[in-house]
Amino acid sequence: MKKIIKFLIVPAFVAAGILSSCHKLDVKVTSELTPESFPVTPAQYASVIGPVYTALRSDYAVSYWFLQSCSSDEAILPAYGANWYDGNKYQELHRHTWTKDNGWVNSVWSYLENIIGTTNQTIYIVKKSPDGPAKDASLAELKTMRALSYFYLMDSYGNVPLDTAYGTGELQTNTPRAQVFNFIESELKSAIPYLSTASGASTYGKPNRYTAFALLAKMYLNAEVYTGTAKYNECIAACDSVMNSGNYSLEPMSTYLKMFYPTNGPSMKEFIFAIPYDPSTSNGTMFYARYDLNRNLGIRYSYSGSTAGGNIDPIMNKTTGNGLSNNKPSGPRATLPEYYANFNDPNDIRDKQWLTGPQYWPDGNPIMVKTTKSGYDQFYTGSDGGAEYIYPLVIDPNIVLRANPALFDVGNDEIGWNMGTRNIKFYPDYTNTTSRNQSNDVPIFRYSDIMLMKAEAILRGGTATLGQTALSLVNMLRANRTTSAARTSVTLDDIYAERCREFAWETWHRNDMIRFGKFEDSYGFKNNADTYRRIFPIPTTALSTNPKLVQNPGY
């Protein structure tokens, strides 16, 4: 997505540089940028708005992913000896014991507040420009981005400060969650008439009208959680607005996995809004896009083989002359057996996004790993611990804290490193061997989500429209994912399982678990059922810089 990324981050520092040069009185003035002259063209507006998109993609693949996914049963990152213990922040997410000092709680708050602050500043600049269609469209785009950021903040932290002014320096106290909901809804509705109705390359990576409708649908589906009042008919209406556009459709089985490959982009028929990534424009953030969405999810080395059959070999590709691997698998985030249990249909293409059990080379031979006896098992007590040991690579779906449960430690050996079913949905760019930067764009809203949100809203009491039922919508999706027989009935539990299969690793699972009443369930090593943990605490850093903030209940 190189060209799109460059368009989205056209340097706005040019204007800053020109303004700073005004202090150099000996410099001959050749041009003057004023609100009346800049920005006025679509390209100039794009250059001003670019930093908002840079802020959005800066930490989405790292902090935001960790907070949403590792606090659910979707993902777990245990320690491997001293590796990834990191001040207990992963264990706290899994066990639901986080505090206001948890590293991910702090960083996500800062990440989202940074997007909001950057957007407020940009809106301030754009509002001073001359009136016209380009200005109206730019303000609508910015309001939608701010609404998305406030949605993430409200969803994660509940009562949050509403700060929409730039330059005042006035601190804001928490706004009740329901009022934040109303603000986001109002902002989106006011933006919709001015947002583009186009899709594809011309609007890719930027919110169009259907991005706003998709966000409204997500808001309305969760409205009872956020406000206490259900809005299922409103959810259905927002979904219908996307469906009636005719701009989107489901990818068939043959291209489902390709939606997440390094080659994805505007050609993906399901993408309503996505964050574009490209290694050539990395300023440090793209390292994380590759490392955390790919390499650290079970893909330690570049892949050079076939994906046929589901058992593939991106874990290790450097071999000795006899086909043995000298590399151990990465010690990454894995999924839990409770979540993986939803992937129980061998005819479903979505089952192919996981690595588990025996692993094979592309020619069908088992991957054999060469290490030492002590390297394989750190608790080996024999005198020949340094002797060569060769074993077939088997990824054990069960995760056991066999080294030190108090430190969340599975062991810093190959038994430990081979634990946990791995997700390879965001497949690695094996043509890029010089860095960990990655080209996989990350979808935020997909057409399949629109379909499943509408199906769920109907089951929860909304009125069916367009001749569609919950059952017909689910079967329409499944017809593009599996060759198994269509369903004859559908329940909310079926919708939940379908969402697990469809949106694994896409940061929606915590949101789903809360709405379906499953966030307090026991899974893995977690048995904490505190309901106040459906929202995270206001972090220490925020409380220290804004004394007007009030901590969330329970913390």
UniProtKB/TrEMBL annotation:
**GO CC list:** cell outer membrane
Q: Superkingdom of the source?
A: Bacteria
Q: Which residue ranges does the record assign to the SusD-like N-terminal domain? A: 43-221
Q: Does the keyword Membrane apply?
A: yes
Q: Where in the cell is it found?
A: Cell outer membrane
Domain RagB/SusD: start-end pairs: 269-555
Kindly provide the name given to this protein in its UniProt entry. RagB/SusD family nutrient uptake outer membrane protein
Mainly resides where?
membrane
Which of UniProt's keywords are assigned here? Cell outer membrane, Membrane, Signal
- Similarity-based family: Belongs to the SusD family.
